[in-house]
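Summary of Year 1 activities. Much of the first year was spent building the evaluation harness for sequence design. The harness presents a backbone, in tokenized form, and records the residue chosen at every position. We chose the following record to illustrate the format because it has been used consistently in internal testing since the harness was completed.
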């Protein structure tokens, strides 16, 4: 004996397939519009100095430290994080202890004070790092 009539199941009022489609479109839009950065390029916008004589010698990743020198304080960056001069000297000392053949690569803005660039080079030599490369751009290329 059945006292209650059987319940009729209604289809859901929200169509899940349409929501999944919208979600995929939003996801694709976010992926396409996102700027991808490489670890070697910090978030600073630098105008590199021009040079017609470029040196193509590149050290391996394990033995190269990239230091960025900006035109205003904080002057020094390791990767994307700003560092003080003392912290930079500690990193150079640690690098020299790990690998005596290590090198330093400088990315300096063309308006960066030469005194700050020389401080980096002096700190590198002070710690026994003899090779210091400077990133430049070729004439006619965009800054």
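For this record, the design step produced the sequence shown next.
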């Amino acid at each position: 004996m059945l006292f209650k009539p059987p319940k009729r199941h209604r289809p859901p009022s929200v169509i899940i397939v349409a929501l999944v489609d919208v979600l995929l479109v939003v996801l694709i839009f976010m992926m396409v519009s996102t700027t991808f950065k490489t670890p070697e390029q910090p978030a600073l916008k630098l105008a590199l100095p021009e040079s017609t004589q470029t040196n193509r010698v590149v050290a391996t990743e394990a033995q190269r430290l990239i230091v960025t020198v900006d035109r205003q304080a904080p002057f020094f960056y390791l990767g994307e994080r700003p560092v003080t001069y003392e912290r930079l000297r500690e990193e150079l000392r640690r690098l020299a202890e790990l690998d005596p053949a290590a090198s330093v690569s400088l990315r300096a803005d063309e308006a960066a004070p030469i005194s700050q660039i020389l401080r980096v080079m002096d700190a590198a030599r002070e710690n026994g790092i003899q090779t210091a490369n400077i990133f430049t751009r070729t004439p006619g290329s965009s800054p």
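The mean pLDDT is 80. Quantitative recovery figures across the full test set are reported in Table 2.
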